[in-house]
User: Fold these one by one.
Assistant:
Number 1:
Amino acid sequence: MLPIPFNRPYLGGKELWYIAQSHAKGQMAGDGSFTRQCQSWLERRTGSHKALLTHSCTAALEMAAILADIQPGDEVIMPSFTFVSTANAFVLRGGVPVFVDIREDTLNIDERKIEAAITPRTRAIAPVHYAGVGCAMDVIMDLAERYQLLVIEDAAQGMLASFNGRPLGAIGHLGTLSFHETKNIISGEGGALLINAQALASRSEIIREKGTNRSQFFRGQVDKYTWVDVGSSYLPGEIIAAFLWAQMEEADAITARRLAMWQRYHHAFEYLERAERLRRPIIPAQCQHNAHIYYLLLRDLQDRTNFISAMKEQGIQCVFHYVPLHSAPYGRTMGRTVQELPITSDLSDRLVRLPLWLGLEEHQDRVITAMLDFLRRSA
């Protein structure tokens, strides 16, 4: 029986050809023609003032922390239900992650609980758009304006998704994207920083170029480039950008295929949700998601463990997601929580992610049948 992995990276067809082109042009280091094409595409599709490719979303978050001028003791409000990079970017600058509970419907940060977490040390809010479903950005941006805070969107999962018609990552002052091989549009590793606040644009280039004004030099704005600020090497190689450009050319088609598979799952599990055997994802009306993840919320941790084990026996790989950061050893040391986080703790134990990748279409019936068989038997 053919194993069905949780993820399989998609190859559209032009990726290797574009990589060969970058080599033929003598462009293998960063900021070549493919990088510029990718950045222009991101600016057009998101409306961001400036987009800069990075070697990962982690790198983009670290750049955002520098641009936010995070100093030791500064606080950044975020959900605990997120990947460690969301917190690490600020901890590296001496910042303190402040963990807030999530909403039960979307698993995003609960915007109603953010204000209670704000203190005189608060510098920024870092909402995470889980599964490509937008946070309540209207409320979050209003809070940020009233308290003079920066909003740094972790839109690692949000490519081509939107909230109230606005692309995720392009609503806050800064936004970060991921092109990791598990994402919808991929380059193996890779990411991008979206600079939506124009005042941060010039410094963002300098930080990305090891603290030099190299970009200004190549535009003819200075006669030589030199060290002018803090920074590091955050740009990706041109081979990464070449691969990514081929994916961007197919981005809409990729998203459409993923949405069709997502909807197929959603329809298959509808009656089990009505029977209160599980819960399916909830997509608020103001959110256009991108089918990054299809997950189920099962009864409890044991139910999830049994489900994953049963699927493994059928050759189908299903996985859970984050261990909440507030409960992690380093999270308990470096961060603080606001009140209790009961929804985070409960839902993180019950969530299971189903396989979702281009090419799964021909196997999806087998996956759904195996899952329904287990769920009926264990009802």
Number 2:
Amino acid sequence: MAMINFNVPPYTGKEIEYIREAVENQKICGDGPFTKKCSEWIEKKTGTAKALLTTSCTHATELAALLLDIKPGDEVIMPSYTFVSTADAFVLRGATAVFVDIRPDTMNIDETLIEDAITDRTRAIVPVHYAGVGCEMNTIMDIARRHGLAVVEDAAQGVMATYKGRALGAIGDFGCYSFHETKNFSSGEGGALLMRDESYVERAEIFREKGTDRSKYYRGQVDKYRWQDYGSSYLPSDMNAAYLYAQLELADEITSARMSRWNQYYELLSAIADRDLIELPYIPEECVHNAHMFYIKCRDIKERTLLIDHLKNKDILSVFHYIPLHSAPAGVRYGRFNGEDRYTTRESERLLRLPMYYSLGANDVEYICDCIREFYD
């Protein structure tokens, strides 16, 4: 049979039509008609005050760091089990990344360890919603309020997921989405910054538009735009937004298809988990996830490596995920781990991600599970 890839970017069939429309509109730079449609879709779906499309989730997080005026000497608390962009956005501003351990059940930051990591230099907490499963946001928001800290949600994997009925990315002060090709909805590269407080919007637009008030100019609020502050170019092309909007229109359908495959994995692999040979994902009762990924946990890194090789020999591409940031050269240089690493390294070495994408078929999932069962039998 043909190789089953780990990821296939989502495609609905309308992407090319919408890109053609963007070209014919003769407005293919940032903040064109499709960019506005995507932003409005996010705002309506999440209830956030304002959403601005960006060129990546990395840039969305950088914008959050700029809006918080993060400076050298500041500290930002986050999990070590995350992508480098979570730390990069703040390290670029001179801050120290303070890593805390994760919960072994959800792979999210352990909310009970955050308070111990707070110092008089702490400025923000950055929870990462791993696999589209929400962190314990009520506790995190309470800690932030009591200590006067900002909360920046890294919801790169969290579009269409909720915590206690609230959209991930719209609970903290800022939320950051990713529309990378590996995400549930994609523009190839892309992201969005969500803002709960409208008072940040004007400055965010200036930072995003190279430090100018060009957004006001396009709305007819000023007769010419001028350099107002420092900034950079964080605007995606409207052609990227056109590609993305074709998927956002079908967000419920895409999510439903992914959820069907996720549930199929869970059902077919439950017998192996019941034999204590693997662990399956845990979804807290207060969370509705988005089937961003399906992973299993092997006994240890040696077993995981053998299983990856076994699946590859069966024409199935499976992968492990993050190398904990605190163990990386830059993590040692720009951050520190607060407390004991009980679970971050151990659990990261056990986790194996299985193929998961919109066009993945039921027969594919059945074959993958058969091959995993064969390995353990």
Number 3:
Amino acid sequence: MRILFVHQNMPAQYAHLASHYAEDPSNDVVFVTRRKKGEMPGVRKVLYSLPREGNKNVHHYMRFLDEQILYGQSVARACLELRKRGFVPDVICAHSGWGEALFLKEVYPEAPVLIFAEFFYRGRGADVGFAEGGETSLDQLCRSRMRNAHLITSLEAADWAVTPTNWQWQLHPAEFRPRISIIHDGVRTQVCTPDPQARVPLPNGNVLSRDDEVITYLSRNLEPYRGFDVFMRALPKLLERRPNAHVLLVGGDDVSYGNAPSDAKSWREKLLHEVPVDPDRVHFIGRVPYDMYLNVLRISRVHTYLTYPFVLSWSMLESMACECCIVASATAPVQEVITDDENGVLVDFFDRDALVDRICALLDDPARRARLGKAAREYVAQHYDLQSVCLPKHIALIERVAKREFPTFSSSALADGFPGAPPENF
């Protein structure tokens, strides 16, 4: 099979799929990306670059679209060169988030396209206005609608799409949902495992283990979208009630989602000005290697995961696979995975007092922590394991899209919004 993957940050969601197809030398696997670092055995990497930055001197609703068109054009030019050299894929897998999938059909009209439809923006009911209690301005509503322009165009051109969760599927327009499968990226549950011997060295020379009372918070970047401000403002009361606790915070100072603070270099700097903490007990260890990241989860007595209604972090599922006892926000993407007091504990995103109470109650109840942790791992292994669940589904989907084996739906069923259950097995 000749298969083309497109993602500006290779390999991202396609790491395991690209590796799978590259294992067979009869396959021709090509990856179009902006990322210069990193190679994959058996995968030909084709680099592209943007000719310029997005135009900031346009209507602010259009700034995203201008940049996304640049992505689409650059990918199309890279694919045109591939075509001139004789490469015509049997199937294309492309992430739609940055506009890279916009013009693939113009270069390869004969190739079926399967796009990764990660997030469809909504002015109401998702991340926009969440911190303001659901209040959104007309400007926010209009801007959110325009942020979907490239996504809708990509969906219309694609033969099929895939998204990780049911909640993300529901965000997409009803007209497109019958052509979107629900398959998560998958968790390596044989790698993300508990380890009673895990140790985490601190910058001050001390070493923490499961013998210590450790509370953890983890995110790619420390920012409000992942509840960093809520967690920080809860810390004084939490530290007062737990005099022997250590708090480990993992994450960088950049911005992945939302905006940077206007009055500080980073959200960490801003919150540390507002919330004084004891550096002997609160440890910011930045971004860490993957092995250390796993050990942070393995020594955690209570792990905290907070998020806006937005894309669910891989880290939450990986923490569950490590048998973490989790206190998580009762927001839609989390509630799809965690059931309160079955495989974790849920708390209102904004209720700092309740967050502290839940953490303290779990710290005082080792039997409950053990029960929740084991249930969390069992749930992830059953529903999200990479090798036994998610990767086989993804492979089967790609094979069917490559053969153009699509299901058909009646017009009457489509008029009702969706014909039956989401097509998670297709």
